[in-house]
Specification:
Blueprint (H helix, E strand, L loop, with lengths): L2 E6 L7 H14 L3 E5 L3 H5 L3 E4 L26 H14 L3 E6 L1 H12 L3 E6 L15 H22 L2 E6 L6 H10 L3 E3 L7 H13 L5 E6 H4 L5 H13 L3 E5 L11 H19 L5 E6 L2 E6 H6 L6 H10 L2
Parallel strand pairs: 1-2, 1-4, 4-5, 5-10, 6-8, 6-9, 7-8
Antiparallel strand pairs: 2-3, 10-11
Helix pairs in contact: 1-10, 5-6
Bound molecules: adenosine-5'-diphosphate (ADP) and 6-O-phosphono-beta-D-fructofuranose (F6P).
The site of adenosine-5'-diphosphate has 18 residues, from helix 4.
Length: about 325
């Protein structure tokens, strides 16, 4: 393969830049040409592309966001859009494409692969909700961001003897919630994978107060909060009314998507980017890259999309035991 493209798609994630850098530099090292495609599949459909060289990716490894910009492209969900994308690849002389994004982006990559464009997907999302990998690019950074912010909230809730209800991202998944809940000493984690009873949480808080616990952190996953508007604010009001403990809600929002990637995300993204180009070099497409334990792996895109990701019930239960 002599010429490949790269794009980032869906929500951005810290570490995408490190992946772009690794893909570009590995390809150049192997004598390939690299085309940068801006704003996801939109750039492919509308000719927003540029030739990349080693300096195109200088000084980006430490930056959050994505040098290539990202977007959602509804047009690409239709067969006509996919065919236009195939045509664009032919015009650009691109034989292979690396797509960094989530499940939706993988579907687009699968569609292009079906039409003969060798695509390799890299898991880029803070949510860690991609079943074909233990860890996604951006997840570790987002969790560290949440931890720092909740630590700050704890300073003020400690000073006021309050309860902080903190809503974290994750779309339909509670991976960020449960892990940051453990890391921040949350008294309870509300996540979509687990049933919970608010009355029992209130009872637990009251029991903990009796044995001297003065401040409380409750982590609410976005997947739970999306059940109702103002879910976290209403939960804080409910807790205050039931327990008499002053409560405040904070929705962390998009700040969780930004910032300089952690070591883990930079290394993971670099390894995965390098691995993707190695596949393309061998003419292998229709694959997604993941990590299992410490080993990089790749799967057929359609098989990957069918996989289910387990939730760490033990971690969740452990948190309940130690957060009294
Ligand atoms: P993510 O990749 O983070 O899951 P989205 O679901 O928003 O994010 O998908 C990103 C983009 O991938 C979409 O805007 C669209 O261009 C493309 N995409 C999503 N679903 C499909 C699909 N079923 N077929 C083809 N392309 C898709
Ligand atoms: O997938 C990443 C994510 O930040 C989710 O956690 C969240 O549900 C969603 O994207 C938010 O999307 P948007 O940037 O379109 O508001």
């Amino acid at each position: 393969m002599k010429r490949i493209g790269i794009l980032t798609s869906g929500g951005d994630a810290p570490g995408m830049n490190a992946a772009i850098r690794a893909v570009t530099r590995t390809a150049l090292y192997k004598g390939m040409e690299v085309v940068g495609i801006r704003r996801g599949y939109n750039g492919l459909l509308h000719g927003d592309t540029f030739e990349m060289n080693a300096r195109s990716v200088s000084s980006i490894i430490q930056r959050g966001g994505t040098l290539l910009y990202t977007a959602r492209c509804p047009e690409f969900k239709e067969e006509a859009g996919v065919l236009k994308g195939v045509e664009a690849c032919h015009e650009l002389g691109i034989e292979g494409l690396v797509v960094v994004g989530g499940d939706g982006s993988y579907r687009g990559a699968g569609d292009l692969s079906r039409h003969g464009i060798a695509c390799v997907g890299l898991p880029g999302t803070i949510d860690n909700d991609i079943s074909s990998t233990d860890f996604t690019i951006g997840y570790d950074t987002a969790m560290n961001t949440v931890m720092e912010l909740v630590d700050k909230l704890r300073d003020t809730s400690h000073s006021h003897d309050r309860c902080s209800v903190v809503e974290v991202m994750g779309r339909g998944a509670g991976y960020i919630a449960v892990n940051t809940g453990v890391a921040c000493g949350a008294v309870e984690v509300l996540c979509p994978e687990k049933e919970f009873d608010i009355e029992k949480i209130v009872e637990k808080m009251q029991a903990s107060r009796k044995i001297g616990k003065q401040n409380f952190i409750i982590i609410v996953a976005e997947g739970v909060a999306m059940q109702a508007p103002n879910y976290s604010a209403d939960l804080a009001k409910f807790i205050e009314a039931k327990t008499g403990i002053e409560s405040r809600a904070t929705v962390l929002g998009h700040v969780q998507r930004g910032g300089s990637p952690t070591v883990r995300d930079r290394v993971l993204a670099s390894q995965m980017g390098n691995y993707a180009v190695n596949l393309l070099e061998q003419g292998i497409g229709n694959r997604v890259v993941g990590i299992r334990g410490t080993k990089l792996v790749d799967y057929d895109i359609q098989e990957a999309l069918q996989m289910k990701k387990p939730f760490d019930d033990d971690l969740y239960e452990m948190n309940r035991q130690i957060s009294i």
